Amino acid sequence: MSEPLKSPFPYFGGKSRCAAEVWRRFGRVGNYIEPFFGSGAVLLARPDFDDDDPPLEAANDLNAWIANFFRAAQIEPEAVAAYADWPVHELDLHARGDWLFYRKDVDREFVERLRSDPDWHDAKSAGWWVWGAGAWIGDNWGRISHNCRKDAEGQPCGVVHARPNLAGKKGLESGRVTRQMPSILPSGVHQRGIRRKRPRLNDSGKGVHRKSLASLEAYICSLRDRLRRVRFCCGDWSRVLGPSVLGAGSPCAVFLDPPYSVADRDAVYGEDESRDVAHDVREWCLARGDDRNLRLALCGYAGEHEALEARGWDVWEWKANGGYGSQAQARGRENAGRERIWFSSGCREPEARLFEEAQP
């Protein structure tokens, strides 16, 4: 049996805190699907993964940077570790962000090379990307509108000149959502315009910045071994939920964590974002919730999927760490208490089911 692993990078809306309850409800399943993979916190936390007899697992995410990281970690784990092994530095955060997200033709070239060649990867991009994810403060480290500078014509031209994260642990090995540093300006003075953020000063570091190169290499090699047989897709969530995929193993568990449909949340996929996805996912769940071969879990905020409760789904309340807004009287703290997971009827009485499954 493999030991559960923590997520390799912080991710906005990550589910590491609720992963144990999800697996308690799912129990042992022959087929597991995660259509909104993100940092992979739930899959990596699986307690019953058998290296000698691995179950079927499929994952999907629209973010090509995530796809490149996991591909590179499987093919060149030592190289990824070497590029990720770098001190937190404010100017490097800006320079590497510009190189990753704003060099010429990066969107078309990078994604198309990943799509056209199953062996192609960029270990440098993977290492720098996961390093930046652990150093960034805010929601997504990536190319989204409120994380970019604009030129004189209003076109995106680089990452925001943001101070690296200063408080809380995140990044490789911690798997925690970003936390914001309380304001360092005098009382009554507010930050305006381009955000200037300084490097971490108040402890020995976090994530990749806490590990020696040798331990970082060992961790990424563990990721490679754990994910070796996971089938990854990069596209629309519904592509991994067709009949042939759902029926590939029995029982089948599906963990659904779409971008929430509420208006007062930050973007997850930037310009590719749609706030209708959660509604579509709920409709998909309503059509399949009575299938006893399926164990479904859908994440959202309180009140978002009440239609499932009316169909007999259990709703479980949990508390996230609230992201960087939780350290002040801000939206993040309020949203932390709104988290819910809806479980289909196939997820009921997990302890009894696990006992039955253990019988010869």
Q: What is the strand and helix layout of this fold?
A:
Layout: H1 19-26, E1 31-34, H2 41-44, E2 56-60, H3 64-75, H4 77-84, H5 90-102, H6 106-116, H7 123-135, E3 148-150, E4 156-159, H8 213-226, E5 231-233, H9 243-246, E6 252-256, H10 277-288, E7 294-301, H11 306-309, E8 314-317, H12 331-336, E9 339-343, H13 350-358
Parallel strand pairs: 1-2, 1-6, 2-5, 6-7
Antiparallel strand pairs: 3-4, 7-9, 8-9
How many domains?
2
The largest sheet has its strands arranged as 5-2-1-6-7-9-8
Overall shape: it is globular
**H/E element string?**
HEHEHHHHHEEHEHEHEHEHEH
Q: Number of DSSP strands?
A: 9
For the record, the CATH class of the largest domain is Alpha Beta
- Note the gap between the termini: 19 Å
Strand content: 5-15%
CATH topology of the largest domain: Rossmann fold
How would you sum up the major sheet?
Answer: 7 strands, mixed
The gist of it:
This protein is α/β, with parallel strands linked by helices.
Mind explaining what this structure looks like?
A seven-stranded mixed beta sheet has the order 5-2-1-6-7-9-8, with helices on both faces. The longest helix is centred in the middle third of the chain and has 14 residues, at 213-226. The protein has 360 residues and is an alpha/beta fold. Helix 3 packs across helix 4, helix 4 (77-84) packs across helix 8 and helix 5 packs across helix 7 (123-135). The chain folds into two domains: 16-62 and 222-358, Vaccinia Virus protein VP39 (Rossmann fold, 3-Layer(aba) Sandwich), CATH 3.40.50; 67-214, no CATH class. Helices cover 33% and strands 11% of the residues. Strand 6 (252-256), helix 10 (277-288) and strand 7 form a beta-alpha-beta unit. The protein is globular.
